[in-house]
Each structure stands twice: as C-alpha cells, then as structure tokens.
C-alpha cells in the first residue's frame, strides 16, 4: 500500500497477544456475571446491523452516548468495535482525531483503522482488511506461532489479533456529540476537552465494567497530538496512589501530531521549502515575520507571508501532497490513477464526502443510536464553529511528555512524510527538543523485503531512567513512514520473506532481551512483551519458553 497507511504500520505495532490478560479477564468477568444492570445498558447500545453492512461481520459493535456534564447537558458519542477473536483478553485502545473539531467516527472509524469503511455510493459498507480489531496476515519465519493465532507452516504465515477499538467524537459539538448549552460550542478548548474525555472514560467503564483494569492505550493524530497526551496526563495523575486503577494506562501514541508551537512552525516552513512547495523569498519572509513561540493569532506580517505560502502551494491536498484532491473530476482521477498507480493504490481523496452521505441517513443514525436529541444541524466531519472559537491551546506538549516518561508511560510517535500540515520535520524537531539519550539508533525497515516500509526508527529513554535498555519503561519511540501522510490511517499486512529478515519494529516491550544470534530487533506491545534479537535463524525453543 502506497497511501492511506500512516497507521497501517501500527497493526504490527499493536500485536496485542499478552496472554496474561486472559487469566485476568476470566476472573474479572466471573465477578461481573451477577450484575444485570450493566448488561442491559450494553444491550441497548449494541449495534444489530448497520445499513449497507456486509454479511460477514464477525465482531460485536456498540455505540451510543455517555453524559460527561449533567448540568450543561454535554454528552459524547462513542463507537466500540470489539476484537474479532477473544475480545475479553485484548487491550482497549481509545482513538481520537484532531481538528480541533473533527470526528473520530468520520476519520478514524470510517476511513482509517476502523473495520467498516464506506463505499463511494455513500450507502454501502465494506470490510477494511487492515482494521486494528482483527487478526491480520503476515509472513513470519516458519514454525513461529504466537499465543492464540493460527499458523500456516508451509507459507510461514501467522495471524496477529489486535485490540478492542473505542472511537469517541470529542469534544461536545463534534459529529453526533452534543451539548444542551449552546454557549459550550463557543467555549471549548484543550482543558475542558481533556476533563470531559476523562469523565467519559469513568462513566463508560460503568457501562462496560469488563474493560476495567484492562491494558489501556490512547492513540490519535494531528491535533489529537494535544488531546492524547493531555488525557493521558489526567489519567496518570488520577491514578497516582491507586493500587489497582480501573483505567490501566500503559502508553499512548500519536501520528503527525501537533506537539510544540516553536518546533512545529520551524519544521513546517522547512518542509514546505524543502519540498518545493514555496519560493525561497516566501520561506525567508516566513522565518523573518512569524513568531515561532506561538501558533495562535499570527501577526499581520506573518499572516501576509502565510497567505503567500498558501497561494504558492496551489490546489494540492496538503495532508498528502502527492495524491489528487477530491475536487478533480472522476475522469481526471481515473487518468491519473492509470498513469501513476503507485500513488493512488488504496487511497480515495473523497472519503469525507462518502462519510457525510452515509452518516446523515436517518436509518444509519437509528442503527447507531445516534442523534437521539435531533441536533439542529447536519452531521459533518469537522465543526468549523469549534475550531473558530477554540479557547485554550498550550504552546507545547513537551512538558507533558517529560512528566509521563518520568512516570513510566511509554510513548510512540509516528509520522508520514507526505503530510505538509503537520510534517515529519516538525515532529523530529519536537522530539529532539526533549534532549533524551538515544538507546536504539535509526535504521531502515522493509515491507516484502523490497521497498522501504519505514525509513527511520529512533528509541530514546528518559535521562533519569535507571535502565538504558530500549525496553526501559520510560522510552519514547519515533518512526517515520515513507510515502504516508496525515488523516489516512489503517493497518498494514507486514510480510517478511525468510531470506530477508531485516530489522523492523513493533512496540512497547518490557521484558528482557532474548539473546539469539544478534542483529534482528523486534520490540512489541504484545507477543507476551518479548524483545527478540537475531541474525540467522530464530531459536524457536527460546520463543516457545516465553509462551509456556
């Protein structure tokens, strides 16, 4: 896949095969069996079937509202897609999209990593083969099988189960989420968004108590580069002193994330210039007139320079500079796809339009238990009102990164290199500003043993960490995905021919290194939290010992 795969790389990152969950889940579920109230509440939210849904859906879905402020009448809309296999033993991942004011249902669920995507007719759905909630196929060395996955020893294949994915439209005013206090839409900001999201989690877990104590991760992209760490900070601080917190935060990950105003400015202008999107004179004007310490309310001279840069960039999709814009005709798009097929494979720039067609259908809203209050406006992918009146936006998330790293929270930062809105250069500058020691140097990794799948991986640890291992509980990992962009996310089939077992990465291991023959590094969020190194053949007996 050339495009729409910023997060496809993370399907392998999210190999949630932690067997320890299974025993914990069994004991917790037995305690819940006697409580009928939460079961009734869940059943009311169960999605029986969505209009246009294919017939081979093999996972449970729930959607509905959770009140986050009774007095103001604020409620957030959610859509839960459970894992296709053994959901009771799989972690929970909360996905948030940015904006501010953009819908996680429109982007995360319906375009990116969700299991059901919308066809171009705006009426029918199709299964996303790279959804985060399903087992996905990848080639691996023969005789290697993880946990409850199904192995085919002839083709060296293994299926990795992933996670339960919770999409939330946040804050109130985004998508189907609403407030009965109209002034709320003019007073949203980072602080209240984080507070409401935390209340949502607490109240949602009362309805879904089987997810209490489950390994929990927060993920998102773009302006969710604020939402995700801010919510993680709220959870982390509220968990302090608790022996067994019900929100068992293990880590967070952000992609093409708005992180630090100073570095975002510098990195973005540099990206525009280095990719020939703006002229030398405009680049100089931007650097001379714009205040790099704040991304809000640019000065008049800076705004003139920004307008000039926008004019010079022309009619491109700034989120994916090498792909077509949706406003070109279907015949033009077909010609471009025929001439440059590698640019358009699995990528449709008009998916936002399909979402607005689909989610505004009354029968769809009824099936989703959505729009129960009759919001006085059409459902849209993004809210211009929220973005226009956004109240508070701290200039930097780096202090939060430092706090959470010191507290043992793992961080995964990924970036596609064709996004000109929150580009990879901005992300790199922001991470470098943390001034953390590097414990794993950058290296290439591959798909199918041929094309570069992601060109750089950099693992750093907090300077105060007692361990300088890449497995340190205070590590931050950066990955750049070649040919990927912002707002086009999913998962990816990761094939590894036996003759080319190059280095590649997963996420978040916390056990000791398994020494085999040296060279290969696989850091995993799951795989029983193993960290494997090898150069020649895998020592299968050592792997088997880990899974016993």
From TrEMBL:
Identification of the protein by name: Carboxypeptidase
Gene Ontology terms: cellular component: vacuole
Superkingdom to which the source organism belongs: Eukaryota
Residue runs in coiled coils: none
GO molecular function term, any single one: serine-type carboxypeptidase activity
Family membership: Belongs to the peptidase S10 family.
Protein keywords: Carboxypeptidase, Disulfide bond, Glycoprotein, Hydrolase, Protease, Signal
A biological process term (GO) from this entry: proteolysis
EC number(s) from the headed UniProt entry: 3.4.16.-
Signal peptide: 1-25
InterPro entries linked to this entry: AB_hydrolase_fold, Peptidase_S10, Ser_caboxypep_ser_AS
Pfam families, A to Z: Peptidase_S10
Broadest EC class assigned to this enzyme: hydrolase
